[in-house]
Structures are given as C-alpha cells and as structure tokens.
Amino acid sequence: METLPAQLATITNATLADGSLVDVEIAGDTVVSVSPATPAGSGDRRHDADAPGPSGLTLDLSGFLLLTAPAEPHAHLDKALSWDLIDPPMGDLGLAIESWKRYSAGMTVDDIADRARRQALAMLSNGTTAIRCHVDILMGDEPMRGVRALVQVREELKDLVDLELAALAGPHAATEHVYEALDLGVDLVGGAPHLADDPDADLRRLLAIATRRGIGVDMHTDESLDGALTLRTLAAVVRDWPAERPVTAGHCVRLGTLERAELAEVIAEIVASDIGIVSLPITNLYLQGWEHPVATPRGLTAVRDLLEAGARLGAGADNVRDPFNPVGRSDALETASLLVTAGHLTLDEAYAAVSDGARSVMSLPAAGVAVGAKAELLAVRGTTLSQVIGEASGDRYVVHRGRLVAHSEVTRRIALPDTLTTTGQPTVPAAESLLETR
Asked: Model pTM?
C-alpha cells in the first residue's frame, strides 16, 4: 500500500482515449515524456510496476484509461451535504433559496468548514484536482461565516487540491461586505444579478467592485427559462477587460430558450468578450421546469451552439445534496454523462467540458498527457471513454502536481449461478463481474 501523497516519476501501460498505449514520464509537476508503451517481457522494459525509484514512484496502469484530471468550475462547498440536515421541500430555485436562508441563519464557521472539507475531499477522491467555490455572503450579523470557513479549508487542503473562491454576493449583500470578503482572501467577485429587482444595475455594481480591485468575476447568470437576460450587459461591460481578469458566467439557462437569431447574436457577443460559460446540468435539470409538467424544458444552456461558435465551455456539478439538488455523487463523470444524455454532446466533448474546458474557464494552465502539460491526471479502470463515463468505476488513481494524492479500489463479490464454475468452462457466457474482481 503506497503512502500518499507520493511523487510519481513514471506511469506505464496507460491507455489513452484514442486507444493508444503509452508510458509517461513526470518531473515535479510536469509531464516531460509520452511514448509508446514498452511491451511486457521486452528487454528494453525499464520499469517495475508500482516500484519506487530515486525520483519517484512507477505506477503500472494496465487496464486503466488515463485522462486529464477534472476541474470543478462551479461548486458550493458551503452548502454541500446539508440536504439531510435541512429536509427541505423539493422544488424550484425560489423554494431552494428560501430553505437555504432559513438554515444558514444558524450555521457556524466550524459547521460550514466541516461539510466543505468533506465535500472537497470526496471530489478529490473521484479525480477533481481543482475547484472554484462560490461562497455565500450570508445575511445577518455575521455575513463572513462562510468566507472564513472556506478560507480555512483552502489553507488546510492547499497541497492536495487547488481551491479558488468567488464571493457570492446576492442582491442583499452590502457592497462593503463584498470588499470585506475580498480582504479576507476571496479571489473573485461573484453574484446572482438575475435575482435582483434591477438585474443590470446589480451586475454593474459587482463589476465595478471587481474593476476597483483589478480582479475577475464569476457570475450566476440568467438562471431561468424566461427571465432576465444579463449576458449582453456583461459582455458589453467586460469587452475591453485585460486577459488577467477572467470573466465567467455560470448557468446561462436563458440562452437555451432563446430564438435562434437572438441566440446567435448573444453567443457572438460572448465570444467577442471571451466570457467562459459554465454548464451545470445536474442542478439545472433539477431546479428548472417545475412549472411545465408537460414537455418540460431541460433547463441547460445552449452547449452545442456555444461549442460550434468557439466559446470556452466548462461544466460542473454545482450543488451536491443540498436544497438546490438532493443528489449528486461528487464525480465529474456524472456531469459528463449528463452532458451526453441531456446535452447531446459527444463523449469526447463531454469529458473535455469537465476537464480541459473547465480548466480554461478557470484560467488554469494546460494539463494532461502531453509533454509540457501539468501532471493533473485521473486514471479510471476501463479502456474506452464510453466505458469509463458509463460505468464510472470506483477504481481510480488521482494525480495532482505530479503526486499521487488519491487511490481507490473496489472489490465486488457476486455469486455464480449453478451453471457456472470457477474451475471449468462455463456453460453460458460469463461476465467478468460474476467473479470476485478488484
């Protein structure tokens, strides 16, 4: 059993999404070589499986698909894992907000930090090595409880996962409290202008704060089927912002219900302003469409049109087991699967949205199995992207900054039918999972 974290030097026998079998060399946090795998038994074979060397561990990934590690561009760690504590009614965004307001009034810094820590580690164990978390500026006398908790968790986990914070300043949040959150260490200005009485005015207020501080923004944007459309205002205001001040818009549900002509116009403005768009399928599928019991809209943003127009597109899970989404597995493969099923993306497009696309939206350096890329990697048991996304095997290796930071292994024991034996030839075809597998 390896001790974690463990520096990696070499990965052998890994299968890539295109089917090729490769060996990978890692130096520090960077991939320095990718070459065809050396055949087993070859005299040129240089590596012993799972053996430590002078510069790090050698990891044999026979039977595993090696991918760029997912990044989560839109999380709510302060809300996560609260569904069972709150027992809220199921319903739309308005009901979820009211349930959360009531519960959050009694939260403590320790309570928030505990749930946020557990959620971040659950995501890490499944392969996510970078998280952007929207943290509420809360109502009441202590609006910084969530901010203080997440700043604490970010420090605790700094060697295991990259955690970036955006201040979620709802229309109720005083401007001075947004500045206070930034002073405490929050990285980006966020908000939900579409919930304000005057959405454009609230958006401009938040963008002005970001401009004064010289930082980027990540806005909850147009999270309704037929409400405000603030994306055009956002695109116009940030058109001339420098590249070091990234701009992200999450949800963008309204895009998915626009008529084709207007949709094309808005997407052209998004691309011209280089706004990163984040699709959040699981939460929007849950929250949207309650008022449409027949022919229910899916509530997703216009993922296909955005990709075809060249927009930067990432995807995330958003809420996990809180009033905004009662389920969720803390697994980017779940998000990718929903993008295929509900968003009609290809397997490659869907996985790119939760990995390379998410990293682009988050302004993170390129990662993956390529020379010069950061060694942010996920290995999942399987040999094709269809198998990996479809089965979402729990057998995984997670690499962050060139170090193995998580390893999970699942054992299944399933009884054989009488017509099968473990010693002779089966009389009917047997799936491998009928035997004990690990």
From this structure: 0.93
